[in-house]
Design goal:
Blueprint: H1 7-22, H2 33-38, H3 56-75, E1 80-84, H4 91-94, E2 100-105, H5 107-120, E3 128-132, H6 141-147, E4 156-160, H7 169-180, E5 187-192, H8 201-216, H9 227-237, E6 241-245, H10 247-254, E7 269-274, H11 280-285
Parallel strand pairs: 1-2, 1-4, 2-3, 4-5
Antiparallel strand pairs: 5-7, 6-7
Helix pairs in contact: 1-3, 3-10, 7-9
Bound molecules: S-adenosylmethionine.
S-adenosylmethionine (SAM) binds at residues 6, 8-9, 12-13, 66, 85-87, 89, 105-106, 109, 133-136, 161-163, 166.
């Protein structure tokens, strides 16, 4: 990772903005603030990865997963929202309520975003805290967010969107184990990508090009998961209430009435899991073991 933002995080922020700009109204997610934060050149829409036609499924998938996670936050009574691998997430800037947001990301991306938010006057210290953690470095994100002010006694929603594919299975497991120890009433939602051969035939070639591009740009896909494997990781982490929400489910939920045919089918699925009764302090006390 360099000194600027993670390039995959910039790309997904631009896709969210592109959705508002080129797809039919109403948007599934109305987010152009990420474009402001990204500080890209004026000709960003000429980038090959912003081709409106070729990237339709990606764009739909990215707004679907964000919308689904935000709906869980809004529909829950949780007063705290932890965004793991937050990138240029802008829930904290767009929300009308009083949910306290903890954005966790690799130190370089977090520091860059912190500076951009300050420059734009979009930092809101009373409701947004950026927490630097590298999930692959044996650090506990839970320890760090509690140190940053998360109240471990109250229900919390945790999201991890567009991140698992870049992590080893060991890091995914450790990350989910920490989430499973949050207070009762907490929930985690994470996205995963299936192995390419499970995708609809018409988008497999696009995915192969994307996989090669990811590898070439230094962000190789490390973990592609089947639905059973993704749900299994959540159960192994300690969740007993585990639901797989497929890209087809997301289509039915958010895209069925659209007039432009936009659809996330073939994109990422989600796992939604609810925390049991284990205490958060149990997990924190396991920090020495790299949880
Ligand atoms: C594809 S972006 C997704 C960003 C955001 N969640 C979204 O949906 O737009 C992946 C994010 O995961 C973060 N990430 C990847 N590997 C990480 C690691 N080992 N530790 C912490 N963050 C990581 C990247 O910095 C980046 O912000």
């Amino acid at each position: 990772m360099g000194s600027g933002p993670d390039t995959t995080a910039v790309r997904t922020a631009l896709w969210r903005a592109l959705h508002v700009l080129v797809d039919d109204a109403p948007p599934v997610l109305d987010d152009t603030i990420g474009l402001q934060i990204a500080a890209v050149d004026d000709d960003w829409r000429a980038r090959p990865d912003m081709d409106p036609e070729r990237t339709r499924t990606n764009r739909a998938s990215i707004v679907a997963r964000a919308r689904a996670a935000e709906d869980i936050v809004v529909e829950s009574t949780a007063a705290q929202y932890v965004v793991l691998g937050a990138g240029l997430d802008t829930f904290a800037q767009r929300q009308a309520g009083a949910v306290r947001v903890f954005e966790v990301d690799a130190p370089e991306t977090g520091a860059w975003k912190h500076a951009r938010l300050a420059t734009l006057g979009l930092d809101a210290p009373e409701r947004l805290c950026l927490v630097p953690v590298d999930f692959e470095a044996g650090q506990s994100w839970l320890h760090e967010v509690v140190a940053a002010g998360l109240d471990p006694e109250v229900p919390t929603v945790v999201s991890m969107l567009g991140v698992t594919m870049y992590l080893t299975r060991e890091a995914i497991a450790a990350t989910l184990s920490a989430a499973a120890s949050l207070a009762p009433g907490s929930a985690v939602v994470f996205s995963y990508s299936r192995p390419i051969e499970m995708a609809p035939p018409e988008i497999q070639s696009i995915l192969r090009v994307a996989a090669e591009g990811a590898r070439a740009s230094g962000h190789p896909w490390l973990s592609l998961l089947t639905p059973d494997e993704a749900a299994g990781l959540a159960r192994a982490a300690g969740f007993d209430d585990v639901e797989v929400v497929t890209s087809t489910d997301l289509h039915e939920r958010y895209f069925a009435d659209r007039t432009d045919g936009l659809s996330p089918i073939g994109g990422e699925d989600l796992v939604v899991a609810r925390a049991g009764s284990a205490g958060v302090r149990d997990a924190i006390s396991q920090d020495d073991h790299g949880v």
